[in-house]
Amino acid sequence: MNEVGMARSDAERAVEAAIVQVEAWKGRRLRYSPVSGGISNTNFRIEVEGDDLGYFLKIPGRGTEMFIDRKAAAAASKQAEAIGVGPRTFDYLDHFGIEIAEFIDGRRPSTHHDFADPAIRDEAVRIYRQFHAAPALPLTKTVFDMIEEHYAQVRELGGYWPLDHGWLYRSYRQAREALEASGLDLVPCFNDPMPGNFLIGEDKTIKLIDFEYASNNERLYDLAIWSSEVFYSEDVERAIIEEYFGRYDKGLHARLIVHKALADIKWSTWSMVQNRISTLDFDFYKYGIWKHMRARSIIGDPRWPLFLKAL
Q1: pLDDT-derived band at 236, boundaries 50, 70, 90
Q2: Contact status, residue 137 vs residue 71, Cβ threshold 8 Å
Q3: Number of folded domains in the chain?
Q4: Which of 64-68, 100-104, 201-205 has the lowest mean pLDDT?
Q5: Assessment of whether the complete model's pTM goes beyond 0.90
Q6: What's the longest Cα–Cα distance across the chain?
Q7: Residue 274 — left, alpha, or beta (φ > 0 → left; ψ -120 to 50 → alpha)?
Q8: What is the DSSP code string of 247-303?
């Protein structure tokens, strides 16, 4: 681990500049090391002399203020802590938009393979249900708001549009109109189910981390984007719906599938924003065109009109 004064990169200089401003840590030996994972920010583990607790510190990525409300993210993290699904949080550097949370030892980031385990899958459903049942968050931001925000940003930045951009946008608008006509079920949503954001214990319990994208959003969107992220089959989605709601319903499944397409449009367009602004070593263009491709596969399914009618 590095100590203050050993920084060699811009990211290390940024973390050093941040941690020396924490009043509670003044006069104590501070060490830090990078934590891999995530495609929005740079992350570090902090060790403070005299503290048994390790800390997780997140330095916001360049331009992420375009689509992340740091105050809302901090509020979501606090709520997750309060209801027992997230780590302890510390407001030492909230005024700089820098998050600090407990570094949870004894747990590991999940993998796609973990979610093939029915016990872990059911635990994730339980955690989602618990988060969704909590009080409303201060930020309401639906998937529609996210998509429109990113479309405007790509236009402003001169980012990449796929050749069938017009068709994808019309398909999104068609789905939006059908969902809004059916009524939205807005609850606190996690909105960012990368496997690394689920920390698994030896007992297969889960803690969630990283609430930057959390907002009040459509309930089924949260389950849909999770299903997309871990590549669940429709058979597994049926089991998830039954576990979450206590029953299986074709209309709920259609709603989940439509939201899977919207999630891919949201993240493909987000990727094209990141492709223009991010300094992270990640191929956002490749990630985005893959998300575009998967959105097409869902919308191009012959059942798509039937899914919309079932909403």
Answers
A1: very high
A2: no
A3: 2
A4: 64-68
A5: yes
A6: 65
A7: alpha
A8: S--HHHHHHHHHHHHHHHHHHHHHHHHHHHH--SSS-HHHHHHHHHHHHHHHHTSTT
